[in-house]
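Practice problem 4.
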């Protein structure tokens, strides 16, 4: 049995003082106990900072870890897409796997318990099969020429053969025809890049950088004739009974969020990736609107093609306008809900194997993260 405490503990009731979390020898939560002086109590492990459950990175692309530092920031979505195409497959498979290995280990030591990971090939599958992190692998389908999921069926089959939790998902609302998009929605849980940039919205209005790129490249996107916006296409094509992660949503406003929430039987999870948005387009996710209207919010790091690290603390620090307790909830419970893991992790609740993480370098007076803030795994 282990008893672990800190200055503040994120319990199901909120950020609380004078609490300790009790775990059995297998790391399962037995409960949260009140204690008037946990830092002076025999048998209690005391860590300065904020004690939280293991975090959930709800959106990443581990296989792109080798692209770190290869793409110029702040060139907009079209510039980023061109840079990513130019950078893919320039490294050897051995180097690609070694970078993924390093970041998998780094995320674990930083306190990441689970990851919603988007993948295009089997590069990381062997690593995931033995990782201490729980991975939900979203095999994404994209390409305007596709009519079904056959292009990625073999990737999914390989993931399932290796015992991974994996399913097919559409990449976005702008890179698939209707037929292929519907085919990719066959899974119960989907992770969709949605309303990420002005270029995505402008494409449906036949203007902007993405529209010019499609036109010059000869891409045929007939859906532009049928839908006025990414939101309209999402609601028309995505079955209402799906569990959906909507990633980025920088262009979503209160009205959009309310309409999307009303469409789905099970409320969607809105996944914010603020540092990636800043890297690509110097945008910020609509966190105030999400706090007002969204039922479920989670946090992702996106990939190292559009970020400098896979640090969940850095992502939280980039949203100082959101109360710290809310950010911590998004990084833990919100991520678990997004991946369907809320009965396994995400909270200090009896019976869960949540892990335990301390965040150090917190300014307790302002209740803000600082440039010195970091996380480390305790259990």
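Answer key:
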């Amino acid at each position: 049995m282990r008893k672990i405490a800190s200055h503040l503990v994120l319990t199901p009731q909120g950020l609380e003082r004078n609490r300790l979390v009790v775990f059995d020898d297998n790391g399962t939560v037995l409960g949260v106990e009140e204690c008037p002086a946990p830092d002076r109590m025999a048998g209690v492990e005391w860590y300065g900072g904020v004690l939280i459950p293991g975090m959930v990175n709800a959106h990443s692309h581990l296989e792109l870890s080798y692209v770190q530092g290869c793409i110029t920031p702040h060139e907009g979505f079209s510039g980023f897409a061109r840079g990513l195409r130019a950078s893919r497959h320039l490294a050897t498979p051995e180097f690609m796997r070694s970078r993924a290995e390093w970041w998998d280990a780094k995320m674990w030591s930083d306190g990441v318990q689970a990851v919603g990971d988007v993948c295009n090939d089997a590069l990381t599958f062997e690593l995931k099969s033995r990782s201490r992190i729980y991975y939900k692998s979203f095999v994404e389908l994209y390409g305007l020429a596709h009519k079904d999921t056959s292009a990625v069926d073999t990737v999914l089959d390989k993931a399932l053969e290796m015992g991974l939790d994996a399913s097919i998902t559409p990449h976005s609302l702008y890179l698939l025809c209707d037929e292929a998009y519907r085919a990719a929605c066959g899974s119960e849980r989907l992770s969709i890049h949605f309303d990420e940039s002005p270029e995505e919205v402008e494409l449906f209005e036949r203007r902007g950088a993405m529209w010019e790129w499609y036109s010059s490249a000869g891409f045929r996107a007939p859906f532009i004739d049928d839908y006025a916006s990414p939101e309209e296409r999402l609601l028309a094509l995505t079955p209402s009974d799906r569990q959906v992660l909507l990633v980025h949503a920088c262009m979503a406003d209160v009205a959009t969020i309310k309409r999307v929430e009303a469409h789905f039987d099970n409320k969607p999870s809105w996944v914010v990736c603020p540092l990636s948005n800043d890297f690509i387009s110097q945008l910020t996710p609509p966190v105030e609107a999400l706090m007002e209207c969204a039922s479920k919010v989670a946090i992702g790091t996106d990939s190292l093609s559009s970020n400098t690290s896979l640090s969940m603390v850095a992502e939280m620090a980039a949203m100082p306008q959101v109360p710290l307790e809310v950010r911590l909830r998004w990084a833990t419970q919100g991520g678990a809900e997004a991946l369907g893991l809320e009965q396994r992790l995400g909270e200090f609740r009896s019976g869960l194997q949540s892990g335990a993480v301390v965040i150090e370098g917190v300014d307790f007076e302002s209740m803000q993260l600082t440039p010195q803030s970091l996380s480390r795994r305790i259990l």
